[in-house]
Design brief:
By secondary structure, the chain is mainly alpha-helical. It has one domain. It is built from nine helices and three strands, in the order αββααααβαααα. The chain has a three-stranded antiparallel beta sheet. The longest helix has 25 residues. The two termini are 26 Å apart.
């Protein structure tokens, strides 16, 4: 199993100072559930950005996720079927962020803190990877919607910058789409440097992607 999602989540949590000890008298490592939820939201949005605006890289990621599958055989991943089956749900959520459209099980609904070791368990890694894949596929199928959403997001938060600065919450600027895409791509390149080259894109996957993008050259 690849670990794009868990690497993203655990890495970003580490940057923000998590996990931490549960208490002075309890050394169990825990993570704030709200922080985990926000991190997963950011992960899904990043995956959607790659699918929408860096499709070649997104396809390499998908190929790596399924590097144990025969893309020319009967067990080839059915990404077209997944997208076709999801379109009705996506249509009902136009204008929302990718993570709102994809949806994910919130940890905060169940507890204020979760054990840090949970994020490394096989089942949890699989769930996170599915969420990451969902973001990639939504982005592949919804390039225009993603760009429209990000531009609206950037405009709204840019307008709020004076308030952020007055509140001294550490927000000095809002990333442009180009800056955001570079950061998302850098995360994958860092993963690649540590874990090895991404898989080449199988012809079947490339053909499916062209159908998703209505024949537009990727």
């Amino acid at each position: 199993m690849s670990s794009f999602a868990s690497t993203y989540v655990i890495g970003l949590l580490g940057i923000t100072g998590w996990p931490r000890r549960r208490s002075l008298f309890n050394s169990e490592a825990v993570v704030d559930s709200l922080i985990v939820d926000i991190t997963i939201q950011q992960m899904i949005d990043c995956a959607a950005a790659l699918g929408a605006c860096r499709p070649q890289l997104a396809l390499q990621i998908i190929a790596t996720m399924f590097n144990d599958k025969n893309w020319e055989g009967v067990d080839a991943p059915e990404i077209l079927s997944f997208i076709d089956g999801s379109r009705q749900l996506w249509l009902g959520k136009k204008g929302m962020s990718p993570h709102e459209i994809i949806g994910f099980p919130s940890f905060l609904k169940h507890a204020k803190f979760i054990p840090a070791k949970l994020l490394n368990e096989k089942d949890m890694r699989r769930v996170l990877e599915q969420e990451f894949l969902g973001g990639l596929l939504w982005g592949l199928a919804n390039e225009e919607e993603f760009v429209t959403w990000y531009e609206a997001y950037e405009k709204h938060h840019t307008e709020q910058l004076p308030m952020y600065k007055k509140a001294d919450i550490g927000v000095e600027s809002i990333q442009t789409l180009a800056q955001y895409l570079n950061d998302c791509e850098d995360i994958i390149r860092d993963y690649e440097a540590k874990s090895g080259k991404l898989s080449p894109i199988p012809p079947r996957l490339l053909e499916d992607a062209k159908k998703i993008r209505n024949g537009i050259e990727l």
